[in-house]
Design goal:
The chain is 82% helix and 0% strand. It has 20 helices and no strands.
């Protein structure tokens, strides 16, 4: 029966979660393509302003993470994501209609605000449906919407830009979120107890399994106590540094490739999709192994370290060999995405349900600040230095520090480790 139950949940919920987050990521990642294909030129945007616009999304994204997680846990993730879908689809479509850069500032910031609640709400939603032994894979299928979206978006956007221009690219890629909102509303339930497609026994079995997990976690009164947790603080800093590398890469990879000799926008799109193929493969593999061995940190920091070394290697190669440099960027991109599943499985295993969503939201909000810094500073460095070497060093350093902090944050205190032998002999 457990296998039947698991199969029902995976087949019913995971495709819906994947598509929803995929649509969210589409509307934040396609700005890099628009900027590389005429948006900046048509609206008379300087490289510095373009960097600010690309990163402004993440400033808006920072503010409503924790309120979103709180609402999702105590009210309804379903309702929150429904309205977010409609609003971000409308804002993304409006991006293709702007005629003045001032409106673009408002739209980019508002888009970040609207989408800010989606990630923590989704993590809360999944924690209601999947157990500890499944959570890394469930989280991975959610976040898989990130690289998988950039994969197909890179190719499709290249053709849309060539055929219709940047305005219609934003319009055509923003409207599907509005349609999907109504499908989301019809297909999901906040809690297993409300699911008409599960039997009473299946609901009871899942409820008992999730409750049993909570019994093994030390109670935490509220967010104030949770936010003081050493692991939460260190992982917040770690995720900010990690996000510097990820979003510096996502936002500016099209421009980096486009700068190569004889590079068309369609070819840029195809090449920009390659790192995300590796990312998808690694994310699925790493999440499976993390759930199998119930190890989290060991499947996070090594990949961040490899990503840092790949960025540094690409810096050393420079412009002397485009294809070697590009291959190293592919490795950096793939390994940066690999550990998301196990990373977001850490907090629900150390904090109880009443505060875990808020703690994950805090970590994700700090990631938003890192994303803001990454997308802005990388763009600034590219524009001010006239090359990409400085930004490679910046992203490599950030990922290296993130790898180190992962080890420090998840290392068990010595006194806790020393208790275990006493317990087993007793």
């Amino acid at each position: 029966m457990k296998q039947q139950l698991a199969k029902k949940r995976w087949l019913r919920l995971i495709p819906i979660v994947f598509i929803t987050y995929s649509l969210a990521y589409l509307d934040r990642a396609n700005y890099g393509f628009g900027a590389a294909a005429g948006l900046a030129e048509d609206l008379h945007i300087t490289p510095g302003i373009s960097s600010l616009l690309g990163s402004l999304f993440f400033l808006g994204y920072f503010f409503f993470q924790i309120p979103g997680a709180h609402y999702a846990e105590n009210k309804s993730a379903k309702k929150l994501i429904f309205w977010s879908l409609i609003l971000w689809g409308a804002l993304a479509t409006a991006t293709g209609m702007v005629s003045h850069v001032g409106f673009l500032f408002v739209i980019r910031f508002a888009l970040g605000v609207v989408e800010s609640a989606v990630m923590p709400a989704m993590l809360v939603f999944l924690s209601h449906w999947f157990t500890k032994a499944e959570r890394s894979r469930a989280n991975t299928f959610l976040i898989l919407g990130n690289p998988a979206t950039v994969l197909w978006m890179s190719i499709v956007s290249g053709y849309l830009l060539e055929s219709f221009g940047w305005r219609w690219m934003f319009i055509l890629e923003g409207f599907p979120a509005v349609i999907w909102a109504f499908l989301w509303w019809k297909l999901v339930n906040d809690e297993p107890k409300d699911a008409g497609w599960m039997s009473k026994k299946e609901k009871a079995d899942l409820h008992d399994a999730l409750q049993k997990e909570q019994e093994g976690i030390k109670p935490v009164k509220g967010y104030k106590e949770a936010f003081k947790n050493r692991t939460v603080i260190l992982l917040s800093i770690q995720y900010a540094l990690w996000s510097i590398g990820v979003y510096g890469f996502v936002m500016w990879l099209p421009s980096i490739i486009k700068a190569a000799p004889n590079m068309s926008i369609v070819k840029t799109g195809w090449l920009a999709s390659v790192p995300y193929v590796l990312a998808v493969v690694l994310m699925l593999t790493v999440s499976y192994l993390s759930d199998k061995f119930l190890k989290r940190s060991a499947f996070v920091w090594p990949f961040l370290l490899v990503g840092a070394l790949a960025f540094y290697g690409s810096y050393l190669v420079g412009t002397s060999n485009f294809w070697l440099s590009f291959t190293l960027l592919v490795i950096a991109g793939g390994t940066m995405y690999a550990p998301y599943g196990p990373f977001f499985a850490i907090i629900p295993e150390i904090l109880p349900r009443n505060v875990a969503g808020g703690a994950m939201a805090l970590i994700n909000s700090m990631g938003a600040l890192g994303s803001f810094a990454g997308s802005y500073i990388v763009g600034f460095l590219n524009g001010s230095t006239g090359g990409f070497g400085a930004s490679y060093i910046f992203m490599a350093g950030s990922l290296f520090l993130a790898a180190v902090l992962t080890i420090v944050a998840t290392k068990k205190p010595r006194e806790v480790q020393s208790v275990k032998p006493v317990e087993t002999t007793a």
